[in-house]
Amino acid sequence: MISYMELHEQNHKITELSNVLSYLINERSMCDTAVSCELFFRYLNMVREHLEVEEHQLYQKLLMDDDNDVRNTGRKFLSGSGEIKRIFEQYKKRWCKGKELRIKDHEAFISDTREIFSLVIRRIDDETVHLYPTLLECGHIPMTAQAA
């Protein structure tokens, strides 16, 4: 089972990558470099993996809890996860082909990408303020990784 500290580390890495990419995408020529593309697709994969971990390891526990407020928190985050995935798929269809970026309108790409980054950062903030404290309070996740 994933721990609070592991979730926090995932969020930190996602935030760090979005911050770096925010600078790189401003310069059109940087968007076409192999390094930028690798970082960009690493970011997309990290967000997807983070959401999947939460869906598979956390939400079920919340949805089965005896407390109605805890169940509502689980429903809210599960619903939000689905919406983020839907938005990511639309974004990838518009800007990606395989593992390459296809940028015809750089200004539109910057705008869409900043919206994606903002969406994910807001989600991370919500997780930190609402999801993780609820999971810890109910005993559904440990603070640190368990020894194997």
Short overview:
By secondary structure, this protein is mostly helical. 78% of the residues lie in helices and 3% in strands.
Give me the secondary-structure topology.
Blueprint: H1 4-24, H2 28-31, H3 34-63, H4 68-95, E1 96-97, E2 100-101, H5 106-138
Antiparallel strand pairs: 1-2
Helix pairs in contact: 1-3, 1-5, 3-4, 4-5
Question: Would you mind describing this structure in some detail?
Answer:
Strand 1 (96-97) and strand 2 form a beta hairpin. With 148 residues, this protein is mostly helical. It has helices spanning 4-24, 28-31, 34-63, 68-95, 106-138; strands spanning 96-97, 100-101. It is elongated and about 55 Å long. It is 78% helix and 3% strand. Helix 1 (4-24) runs antiparallel to helix 5, helix 3 packs antiparallel against helix 4 (68-95) and helix 4 (68-95) runs antiparallel to helix 5. The longest helix is centred in the C-terminal third of the chain and has 33 residues, at 106-138. Strands 1-2 form a two-stranded antiparallel ribbon.
Tally of helical runs: 5
- Record field, number of beta strands: 2
Q: What structural class do you assign from the helix and strand content?
A: mainly alpha
One letter per element, helices H and strands E, the order comes to HHHHEEH
Radius of gyration: 17 Å
Helix content: over 70%
Give the distance, in angstroms, between the N- and C-terminal Cα atoms. Answer: 11 Å
Low-confidence stretches: none
Using the alpha-carbon principal axes, give the shape: elongated
Largest sheet: 2 strands, antiparallel
**Beta-strand level of the residues, as a percent range?**
under 5%
Characterize the quaternary organization of these chains: single chain
Strand order of the largest sheet: 1-2
Mean of residue pLDDT values: 94
